[in-house]
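retry 2 of 3: previous attempt timed out while embedding pyridoxal-5'-phosphate. Reduced batch size to 1 and resubmitted. Inputs unchanged:
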Amino acid sequence: MPPRDFPLDPFWMPFTANRQFKAAPRILVTARDMHYVTEGGQRVLDGTAGLWCVNAGHCRPRIVEAIQRQADTLDYSPLFQMGHPGEFRAAALIAQLAPEGLDHVFFANSGSEAVDTALKIALAYQRARGEGHRNVLIGRERGYHGVGFGGISVGGVPATRKAFGNMLPRVDHLPHTHDLERNAFSRGQPAWGAHLADDLESRIIPLHDASNIAAVIVEPVAGSTGVLVPPRGYLERLRAICDRHGLLLIFDEVITGFGRTGRAFAAQTFGVKPDMITFAKGVTSGAVPLAGVIVRHEIYETVVNRAPPDTIEFPHGYTYSGHPLATAAAEATLALYHEEKLFDRARELAPHFEQAVHALKSVGPVIDVRNFGLMAGIELEPAPGKPGARGYQAFLKCFEKGVLIRVTGDIIALSPPLIINPAQIDEMAGTLATVLRQI
Ligand SMILES: Cc1ncc(COP(=O)(O)O)c(C=O)c1O
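retry 2 succeeded.
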């Protein structure tokens, strides 16, 4: 291995056990298509599309060239009270992919920012239509909506909520939908649990009163807390309850957007139309940070048209909301998805992927396998007194054997780039089987 020309210590790594990592670092230096290469020269199959984002595969020339061209043409332009062609073109392309009627796009840079933006749009919309008292936001247990104070508050991840999660006071949570006793080893949507959506109408609405609630935010498939697939009929019920009581429904599609479930958005796969969709990650295949919110026509019209003329209707935005490099990457990525029919490919590969992951059913400590589209969760029985230890061991051993998986505690998540082929799916599942037999 060539000597490192950088120190490890000054960099405070995000969501990482810094001391553990720095004692035995894993450094990736290059990537192409389905593989990374480590500093020691080992090839690693990307079973996670980076962090659920590299949907078109790594270093695709079309995306790389678009970024290079843009950097040499217009590196940056102010994004407030000024525009550049790329942001308008990218917004139009994203709106075209979205469910009908969701036709306006606000740009941010990360999923966390997209979530905070969507929550603010919900409040701005309710205020603009004369219902400013609607300011309670409803999330869900085991929801992950990034790390802004808004996202943590509506989110349901104990570790992030513990320290910072109470900063937004007017928040409540639906129960999560995960139930191993009833739904373990479900293929696709589990049969049990649609009624859990009714908690919104039977408990939360009577407690707060519908006239005070602005919006409900959920991930259609919860990703980061372990791939929790919505029970059959659950999302439909949420939609119907929101409609009955005038609540906005936000789908956080930061992970499920751009083909992960076999269509552009999970909203289309499930046939349930939210009022807003947050997106990030796959919009540029991870190559440059870009995120945003797609909103229903009437939401944009209400916020914009009810404001006094010549005023900034929505006082919100980021220095990099629609950065030229990001929108160039998005245009190239969306073109690649279209040309290579990658969303269809994900849908076509899903049955093979399902077979491969469910073959892990009786292997080692596996207590559940669940899947939807090209995402799967494999849950392990925690080692006595050591929650998370088996998951971490599986992660390390797979990496040693050249496969990158992701773990949340003792749950393994797989979400490969949509360009994966059946042999690589088998390689990923085969390596995992070998490792799980050893732990
Ligand atoms: C559903 C969801 N929302 C929001 C986020 C936060 O995105 P970011 O890390 O880009 O801020 C994530 C990240 O994984 C996510 O899965």
